[in-house]
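Troubleshooting log. The previous structure file for this entry was overwritten by mistake, so regenerating from the original sequence record. Sequence copied from the archived sheet and checked twice against the printout by T.R.
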Amino acid sequence: MPEITEQLEKWAGEFGKEYTDRNALSLEEMDALYERNYGQTRTELNERFLEGVDRSIRILEVGSNVGNQFLCLQKMGFGNLYGIELQSYAVELSKARTRHINIIEGSAFDIPYKDGYFDLVFTSGVLIHISPSDIALAMREIYRCTREYIWGFEYYADKYTEITYRGHRNLLWKADFARLYLDQFGDLELVKEERLQYLDNDNIDTMFLLRKRT
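Regenerated output below.
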């Protein structure tokens, strides 16, 4: 595991707390935000990508923050949900906002679960905040913990591109994260990917689903 990185320190502190307070959304608010951004809701995207996936599978979200995605997954019928979150404030807030979900404090660099413990591990707007020098380690931990699926929703660019985030450098990057996974792990295959163009600007996000070949 790397030393406490600049990014870990920033997100665990007051800067991260402010982010958490801005992003504590109800499912209805989150779906409305996605509708404004892409012309479709997060619920619609999730249902399309997870169509046919058994609702009893064990799922881990890495970087679960306040549990926005859990609210959606529970409504879809998924009940075996776990979260790992760097920021203690967000862990406590997510526990107050959700029910019957195992959420603990921890880092993507050292996920405290055994190999293949989960059927699906996912991130949503998390890989973008990990330095390019550390991303391979985070991906190895995600890959290690999943028995079958890796699911992601992240900012997209065809090559690593740093973006200034709220006046700060070294906190946000766009990349082709699905391709980074595929290049690093030879037994992964791409099940589905959609590039999502914002309605009011030129930015693109990507949702992707990967699966380990058996």
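The CA atoms of residues 182 and 188 lie 6 Å apart. Archived copy saved in two places this time.
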